[in-house]
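Troubleshooting log. The previous run stalled partway through. Resubmitting the same two chains, unchanged.
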Amino acid sequence: MIPFLIRRLLYAVPVVLGVAAITLALFTFAGGDPAAKRLGKNPSPEAVERMRKEMHLDDPFAVQYVEFVRQIGSFDYGDSWERKAPVRRIFLDGIGPTLSVSVPAFLLGALIAVALALMVAWYRGSLFDRTMTVAAIAGISVSSLIYVLIGQWLFADQLRLFPIWGYEYGWRSIYFVALPVLIWIVLSVGTDLRYFRTVALEEIGRDYVRTARSKGLPERKVLFKHVLRNCSIPIITRLTIVVPFLITGSFLMEIFFGIPGLGSQLYAAIRESDFPVVKAFTMIGTLLYVAFNILADVLYALFDPRVRF
Amino acid sequence: MSSTTLEQAPRPFVVRSPRQEAWRRFRQSRLAMAFLGLFGVFLLMAITAQVLELTQIHDGDRRGLLYDTSLAKQGIEVAPGVPWPEEATPPSTTHWQAWLGTDSHGKSVLLRVFHGTKIAFVVGTFGALLSVLIGMTLGLMAGYFGRWVDEAVVYVYTTVASIPYLLLILALAFLIRQGGIAKAYAELTILGFQPEAYMSLGLFTIVLVIGLTSWVTLCRLVRAEVKKVRELDYVQAARALGFGDVRIMFKHVLPNVFHLVIINFSLTFVTAIKSEVILTFLGVGVDKEPSWGQMISAAKSELMKGIWWPILASGSMLFLLTLAVNYVGDALRDALDPKLKR
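Second attempt completed without errors. Output:
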């Protein structure tokens, strides 16, 4: 176990360094000139030159890279170029609104998907199963933007149940996040349901299920005791892997609904070539992704005695 | 009675190739066949839209395209002597161009939705093609050569997969449009042929972004499968016969993992046309010609004014095409899965 963990952690180091290199290279070689952008229309070449020096854009790539890696190690990403505030401040301001959307959506969505998948597995082959399968595939075929626009139009504009746009801190936030959460759930349940159904049906076809049935166990016990336990491994690992997306996944919902979370901040930062913010958010997202992937592997091994390190 | 006995007579043993076997199983699902037919209809529409567009473009001049000219400017009248208003009008049967209504500039929704089919196919086909080419080639190489090639490929895809996906897409799209790539693309000429005249920068950006970001899944699958296939006897035999690596890889190994490529192509096709909508809404997508993404984005302000027909038309088209490809993809996966063979 411990050697496995050490091996995985060591392997994560070059991956994180690689992401850092890609991020830096993309902005250095593919992007426009952030210095010129900062100076507004038609800046003089001298002013751009001075600005570039001030922003350390003319440093050799290797120097910028080493500085970037140092920032990742120390979690200190310096100041935003656009807003005169430390990146850390921007991150901490955004995390609350982001989590207020993503956490309820994630928990409710997972609960609904697992419950539906079990029901579908229970009534497999019936009209209910086929209806749900078709509904799931139809549900994931609708563009997320359509859900958002129709949701805003119907619930906010016509029925006036929720505000269309904006955010308030504290308890009133429920009012603002209700619609994005609802839409997120609709968006995720289709995909999750299809996955969990496949998992459940695969388990139901196994030998131990036949054994359990042949010794006379009621179907209820077979499904909820034997099958559910074995399904829980892939379900838990999948849910673990998506946890990092609680930070980065509400991106679209935040932009569509004007929620001042990390997604909106990041979108603004990309538009304004506010490189320090983009760098920091990319690396935080990557670190979380890598960490939770390792965690999923560990959980998988803990729950499944067949897995050897 | 006689027909029953005929049916019960022993049938000659039929040998089908795996491809025939898969097609036979695919055909058994009527819904899958219906959706395949629907996909065919969409494909025909896309080709027609492309041909229509090409016949209207002369010397790279995109002005005066029918979908971009309001009904009033075409001289179409609501009633004798009354020109068609240059504003949104609901669907009407007065003129065929207004069957699905007109948008807020008085342009035909029908023609614009029709042209959107072409955009969807360009984005879907080229995006998926690029992604599949990268994923397939890297996966083949990693699985076949093993050792350091394998380790390098695994490292690259682990790294790419670790970057938050939406962030990568959006950042890439912005960077491509702002930086040197956009400039190079505008000036690119291959044998006197300018790609920019046929595929606008917005389209090119989406294709590139999808191709560069969504190859990881296929690469993983192909690599794992090739690792198994390369140990099989017939591959060993091919090697013993002295065939080169490239020949064995593409002629002997690839056909055995190609079902993964086909299924993944359909998945990426859908991802691409859905991403077009999002990227266009965020202002880094299609901008020079009408697309479904544009029509859906425009609905943000239109819906509140009670103009529902453009989003209904574009949204339904997008939904039907996505549904058709999703369903056909699912059916293909079942039909091509050797484990389900019966």
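Takeaways: Chain B touches chain A at residues 155-156, 158-160, 162-164, 166-167, 170-172, 174-176, 178-181, 270, 274, 277-278, 281-282, 293, 296-297, 299-300, 303-304, 311, 315, 318-319, 322-323, 326-327, 330 (CB under 8 Å). Chain B has 14 helices and two strands.
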